[in-house]
Amino acid sequence: MFKFFNLILQDTQMERIIDMRSDTVTLPTKEMKQTMLTAPLGDDVFGEDPTVNVIFIFFHCKKKVASLLGKEDALFVPSGTMANLICVLGHCWSRGSEVILGDQTHIFLFEQGGIAQLGGVHPRPLPNLPDGTFSIELMENVFRDNNIHFPVTSLVCIENTHNLIGGKALPLQWVDEVGRKCKELGVPLHVDGARLFNASVLLNVPPERLVRDASSVNICVSKGLGAPVGSVIAASHEFIERAKRLRKVLGGGMRQSGVLASMGIYAIDHATETIVNDHKNMALIANEAIEETEETEATEETEETEETEATEETEETEETEATEETEETEETEETKEIEKTEETEETKETEETDETKEIEET
Ligand SMILES: *Cc1c(COP(=O)(O)O)cnc(C)c1O
């Protein structure tokens, strides 16, 4: 994996080093920046920035809704961390609330415990499984009875794609089951969809379908989508009204934020093509790496064979030698095939990975 960090590709006449520490290092394109220059602006705390309001229209407009998140309303906020905090606090409006979430999630591990530090919300982490899910049976088991000794289970959070688990897209069937169980238990579901578009492209499912049962969703425009700043919360109109209050108290009420939102809108508009391209490039790099490894292995094998041959020649007859060579070749080919399969599997995982090591990111 670390080998890739030094990968240099020819880009027209320029040699370019591809920085793969995180998709947060992505820069806005010229076209994206141009949208900023002509964006109509106003004071968004007064609700008067037309460009920021376009983000609402994005989610309001029936045609867009069909292809996006399928929620009533949306809110532009400065970061994904703030988006998650606002959503958790918005759902856990009463004191003594508890949230069920995976123990490898961004909210639990990488947001300074903000939900507890600032919101007084009690986290109930469940062990994340290797595919980013957790046991739904366990989720049901830890659900609190109405008992004065206990906090009140008020929310379930899932993360899609799951960053720390390797950027994996959560299996849709599991997402649906969590949604069904939440409804049954009467709690809302929040989806930290910082990279929801990656999951959508990987699974070939519209983003809306991935968050069908969610009461709130966070998407980051500042990760793989390439915008410099911002996240969008999508939820019901009622929830967004509450989210606006929370955004203000957290210091996230911005003024002429259309400067930023314009690039976010561009990023969302081009999300699918950007991510499809990203995944294609990832596959190219991975294949290149496989070929490189195979070449190195082949050279090593040839050297080994030559050495063996030399020794054998002095000790054995030509006939024996021929037999042994055939056997060796067969073995080598088999080994190669096994290695190839193993590598392809590794590569698949790499493709799914959002290339992000959160530790490096923050
Ligand atoms: C990056 C990320 C966030 C936080 O976004 P910031 O804009 O960096 O605060 C939240 N959740 C996940 C899964 C992330 O990868």
Automatic annotation (TrEMBL):
Region annotated Disordered, chain positions = 290-362
Q: Which Pfam families match?
A: Beta_elim_lyase (PF01212)
Which UniProt keywords are listed? Lyase, Pyridoxal phosphate
Signal peptide boundaries: none
| Protein's UniProt keywords contain Lyase | yes
- Compositional bias (Acidic residues): 290-334, 342-362
N6-(pyridoxal phosphate)lysine occurs at which residues? 223
- Give a Gene Ontology cellular component term annotated to this protein: cytosol
What protein family does this chain belong to? Answer: Belongs to the threonine aldolase family.
Protein name, per record: Putative low-specificity L-threonine aldolase 2
Query: What taxonomic ancestry is recorded?
Result: Eukaryota, Metazoa, Ecdysozoa, Arthropoda, Crustacea
